Amino acid sequence: MSERSFFPSLKASALAGVAVAVLLTSSMVAGAQVTGSSQTTTDANGQQQESVTLSASGKKHKKEDKVVESKDTKKQMRKDKALTPIAEQDAKLPDKELYDKAVLATKKGHFDVARLDLQTLLNTYPDSQFQMRAKLAIADSWYKEGGTAALMQAESEYKDFITFFPNAPEAAEAQMRVGDIYFRQMDKPDRDYTKATHAEEEYRLMLQQFPESSLVPQAKQRLREVQEVLAEREAEIGDFYASRAAWPATIARYQTVVDTYPEYSHMDDVLVGLGDAYEAEAKYVRSIRLPEAAKARLEHIYDDAAANAYRRVVLEHSASPHVEDARDRLAAMDLPIPKPTPEQVAASEALENSRSGYNLKERAKLLVMHTPDTVMAAHIGDPSLTDPKPTLAPDVTRKIISDFNTSMHPETAAKEPAKTEPAATADAAPADEAAAPATPTTPAAPLAFHDVPTAAPGSDNGSAVQTSVPGATSNTSSGTASDSMGVEIVSPSSAPKASDANGGLKAVGPTNNTPLPAVEKAGDAPDAVNEIKPGSQPAAQAPNPKGKKTKPAFDKSDESSSKHKKKKGLDKLNPF
């Protein structure tokens, strides 16, 4: 039985083998791609013949096929190269081995072992090139360990690193880590906000000290999230005061949010609440009995403040959810609704689109973890690096009282600037000189210390002292004495009289100065009389002449005891 062949004839198989060999050789040289096809035909004698067609298409390596690394990839490679141990030179040095061992222990979670090796490196090799890395690695080990005590120690280590290496590129990273330590410990807005305040301070310090660092965008975003939490706290307190109708406190909290945290996610709601608080004040003014003119002035003040808050929502937050509420309130006040410019609309849309949305992962994290909600924090814009002066409720209350007084007495408010002008000068004239008309030819000179007039020699105004300048030169034109040094000496106006020993002061005491009689001396105590004769002894204490101890007499009718005979008969019923 003959074997079955793929090719119909020996000649066709030989030709196919030669063609394949040639094409394989050319593909190895030029990287050609070989494709083949076979076709079976019948000749005139009725025999089948198969023809094989082979084709090769070569490809050349182009420059576009090479992998081009992006900037982020190159940046990450440089960072890894800087942080990973040096493997080329100095690979077998003892300090290098200690550092590598500590890094490996930190990755495995053996933080105590890693810190021990790093501290050994610092103490044993003070001139090692791994001094800075070891110092930073110790702080990183505390940071990765976590816990309140470990994070406090990590903050101290990072601060020491910044002190010893302020110009190193890793100093910005250390300052960033200090902010992250407080960021990890932040609580919800209705809890203690001390950690959030510290995190805000550290991130601001990082942005101010290292403005050229590559970590600046990350620090800005963290600062926005921290300020989102602080703004949420102030807004919630304002909502609480609004529910209690404490409008001065409500205005103070809302105004602080508006001035301090302009990128707050619910700024439109805050501005609407601020306008409602001013409208509540205006409503209260309408309900009390006041003169019509004063009532109109107060209503104008509060209505304008509310309208300004509503207009700000319409103009600056046109893409926010509560913009329609602000428009409805302006329409209810019969005021025109402003139209925002295209730039304002674009800025509002960009700010709202930069906020992240809630997904299942974020909602589960907020439900399980006790962390603040920073999902809606903005991702664009520069966060505020300095806090303006906060608005306090006592200041708002004083402003409301001032508005009431101004509205009730407008003429007093008009005279106040005229009264405050003379008080602004430091050297004001006395009242008697100010009352005297000044001559236009001789303008009055400013008052000095040596120009104070002294008392006349014969005058007696009842005062205990008078001013005098010894050795002063008299001025005939003015009739006053002046001293060249401008020093005024105060001395008593007259010497005390011989009969007055108190120097002219009135004695304090009762009007009746009759001396009291002398205190009588206590008499001698009587001698003690001892009625017991010496050598005698009471009968109760006399010893038994027979030398035996006797028991005291016992009356059965008075008491009963288990040591004596029990009562009998009617004595049992007698309680006495």
Question: How would you characterize this protein structure?
Answer:
The protein has helices spanning 10-30, 71-83, 94-108, 111-124, 131-145, 148-164, 170-184, 194-209, 216-243, 247-260, 267-287, 292-316, 323-332, 342-353, 360-368, 393-408, 410-423, 431-435; strands at residues 32-42, 48-58, 465-468, 473-474, 481-482, 489-492. It is mainly alpha-helical. The strands form 3 sheets. It has a two-stranded antiparallel sheet with strand order 1-2. A two-stranded antiparallel sheet has the order 3-6. Strands 4-5 form a two-stranded antiparallel ribbon. A hairpin with a 5-residue loop joins β1 (32-42) and β2 (48-58). The radius of gyration is 51 Å and the shape is extended.
Task: Please outline what is shown here.
It contains 18 helices and 6 strands.
Query: Using DSSP, what is the number of strands?
Result: 6
Low-confidence stretches: 56-64, 418-452, 454-489
Separate helix tally: 18
Q: How do the strands of the widest beta sheet line up side by side?
A: 1-2
From the spread of the alpha carbons, the general shape counts as extended
- Rounded to the nearest angstrom, the distance between the terminal CA atoms is 147 Å
The profile of the biggest β sheet is:
2 strands, antiparallel
How helix-rich are the residues, as a percent range?
40-55%
| Oligomerization status of the protein chains | single chain
What fraction of residues sit in β-strands? 5-15%
Residue-averaged pLDDT: 76
- What would you call the structural class? mainly alpha
Order of helices and strands: HEEHHHHHHHHHHHHHHHHHEEEE
Computed over alpha carbons, the radius of gyration is 51 Å
